[in-house]
Structures are given as structure tokens and as C-alpha cells.
Amino acid sequence: MESETIISKQFYTNSSSVISEQALxxxxxxxxxxxQKIHVERPxxxxxxxxxxxxxxxxIGGVCSVFLLQDDFEQFHFERIASTWGLPFLIITTLLFFxxxxxxxxxSYLYLKYKPVESVSDDLLPTCTIIVPAYNEGKLVWxxxxxxxxxxxxxxxxxxxxxxxxxxDDTWYWMQEAKAKLGDRVxxxxxxxxxxxxxxxxxxxxxxxxxxxxxxxxxxxxxxDTLRNLVSxxxxxxxxxAVAGNVQVLxxxxxxxxxxxxxxxxxxxxxxxxxxxxxxxVLCTPGALAAYKRDAVFNCLPEWINQTFMGQPSDIGEDxxxxxxxxxxxxxxxxxxxxxxxxxxxxxxxxxxxxxIRWARSNVRENLMMxxxxxxxxxxxxxxxxxxxxxxxxxxxxxxxxxxxxxFYFIAVHPIxxxxxxxLGILIFSSFSMIFYAKRYNLSESFWAxxxxxxxxxxxxWIAPYAIATASKKGWLTRGL
Length: 481
What we know:
Layout: H1 4-12, H2 21-24, H3 45-68, H4 70-82, H5 86-113, E1 128-134, H6 140-149, E2 158-164, H7 171-182, E3 186-190, H8 197-207, E4 212-216, E5 220-222, H9 226-236, E6 240-249, H10 256-278, E7 289-293, H11 294-305, E8 308-309, E9 312-313, H12 318-328, E10 332-343, H13 349-371, H14 384-398, H15 400-413, H16 415-440, H17 443-446, H18 448-459, H19 463-469
Parallel strand pairs: 1-2, 1-4, 2-3, 6-10
Antiparallel strand pairs: 4-7, 5-10, 6-7, 8-9
């Protein structure tokens, strides 16, 4: 998934078993599809309303406080400039602010130019191998496999492989049930023991016969036309080496956190990856849904499966690593907004922060890897976009600790000024996400952009500095949850 969003949030300080009918019939798809109804325990609407109201009260309080405490802000500003470190820090942050503003304006321009590739005809579609690795997913893997088999893709061009990575629950049973229902349309395998997602994917790559490999997480549901939309860029663009799908939240009706993440995902994918796609340099093809050219995968497969970091085998960030290695070969990596997948996200704080730590560690590792080639002649075409995106990531990582130290200093010296300026900043910077979501989908859910920013700022700000300090640590973290 998209790890750069985690650090950018800090920089700016700014399972259900099947998809519900309401989710499939929503504006994500634009067309209604019949599916099995299930009972999902939903939070009372009054709780969600209370969270949003509380968020706006905090932001309004911040605006009022900033207005009333203008003299205190000016005094703090002068004191900071007069200090030994204050003026250099101010100059650096001012330069970064203008740099980020320029990047944002350029990104907005690129987003307006973005258009997904329309699906090509059946006779032009390439042969495709879908790999579904699974670990302790239970009945979710059944729903994933059935949604893939129900895709509007020529059956004779589709190879569906499901690999149980040594699950300790009934995942293998549900794979067998899917096999019984789908017959020769799916082939299932069972690893002798849990070896990690990378090893499961590697087995799929070695067994796959398709011109295009598609990887799908086993807790995800695809739309009928997702696969054909996902692979169409390979047909019209021979330079395309990988394609990222559009990940949306499946369980966004079941808890508060998924509601917040739903808005965040839309911003991360439909804005950020659209921009990256225009530059031919999407930095991460998400594990939930991604497609890769066969030759591009096999060119780097030995390096990928044997990848290490600080002498330890890499057992996280397999999606970001593969994307990086494909970019390094000179291929373009694109994003398809019309290739939608719905995936489950954590509903509790523990699962969420563990997932974010894994993403952030992968982000640190792969930015170090990208630094080794991004300023070389790795691509015949323009390298400006890839270099700009890398620098954007580099500055965010490099400034993580200075901003954290300044934040703690600000809190210790002027806690009221810190709180008021923070809530004002959230109101300003999150308004773009809110407006973007409201325009793409609906207004009522868009207000979760503000609540998510408040939640992230005060409970997840530590993710980026912690991930940098522990980047060499192994472990999937969320597998035991």
C-alpha cells in the first residue's frame, strides 16, 4: 500500500467476509452488482456525528485562539529568530514550504491532465496470471477468488493461482471450497509452512504462464471490469512495466477508523498516484491490486527474492521493492483509476499503527535504494518526474526529526499556541482532501478528512520517526492480529 502518505501527513502536520451490497452499489462503481448480503455491526451514526462535530469545534477553537493570541505568536516568532538555531530553521522551513507549494501546484496541474486508459478489446487483452497469496484470511479468500473468477475477462486468457502461506486457520478449507466451485478456473497451492508473502508471490511468479502478472490481496474484492482496465496500459504502452490499481476501503461502514481511512485512501490513490502516473513513476504498486509485465518481473526476480537490508532478509515492502526494481530498469509505472479494488483495513488502533509502521519502514528502505539509481541514466525518456518524486520523499524523511524536535519544544514553551496553530493548520491543509473527496464522491463522508488529520496528528505522529529509527527491524507486525 501507499507508505509515502504516512510521512507526508506528519510533514504537513499538518472482516466482514464478503463485500456488502451497499458497498458494491455505491458511487465507487457507478453500476449496481448483485452480491450476497451480510450482517455487519455498524457504529451508531450518533457516534460518528459526535466525532465530526468535536473535530470542527476544535478547529474553530484553534482559529479563534490564533486570532486572539496574535501578540503572543509575534513574540514567539521574534524569540525564535533571535535564538541560535531559530533563524537557520526558519530559513530551511520557509524554503521547504515554497518547494512543497510549487510541487503541489505542479501536481494539481498533472492531476487535471490525468486520464485512465480505457479498456482494450478482448482480442487485444494479454494472457494474465493472477496470484492471490493468503495467510489466516479464512472465508475472505473465498470471496476474493469468486470476485476474480467473476471478472469480465476472457476465461481462456486467465490463470488464477491461490497460495496458502501456511495458514493456521481455515484458509485452506475455503480455498478448497473455491476450487470445488470454480473447478479448473483456479489452481490452489499450500506452502509447507509460513514463509512470508514474498515467498508465496515468488512461487506464483515461477508457476505463472501469463504475459502479465496480477497480484491481489486475499482480503480484497475486485469490480467486474477491474482486471481488463488494469492490464490495458500494457497493450497501448510498450514502455509500461507495472500498473497500480485504485484501492478503496471495503469495511468503511463498520467502524470509525475505516471511515477516516477511506477518505485518506482516495486522496493517496486518486490524486497522488494520478500525478505519479503522469510522470510515469508511480512509486508503489499496492499489494491489494497491481499488475506487472512478465519480462520486467523476471529481470529482477532473483534480486527481489534475495533482497536484504542491513544484512537481514527483507520480509516487508515486497510491493514497493518490486516497483522500485522495475522503475530502475527504465520501465514506466502507471496508475489506473478505473481499476478498483476494495480491501479491508484495520478497525482498531493497534492494527492501524502496526500497518503504518510496516509501510513507513518500507518507505525508508526503498528511498535509500532509489537514491542509488535515480540520478543515473536509468531511463531514456525524461527522468525529471522520478527525481522530483524522490526528492519530495527525501525531504520529508530528512526533516522528520527536526520537525519533531521543534514540535516538542513548541509544546513545552507555548502549549496553547501549539494547539491553536495546529488546529488551524489542520483546517487549512485538510480542506483540500475534503473538497477533493466531496467532488469525487459525496460531501457527508468528506468531513472525515478533518477527523483523520486530528487523529493522525495527535496519535500517529510518532510513526515516521520510529520507523526511521527501526528501519532495519523485520516482521509483518499485523499477522498475529
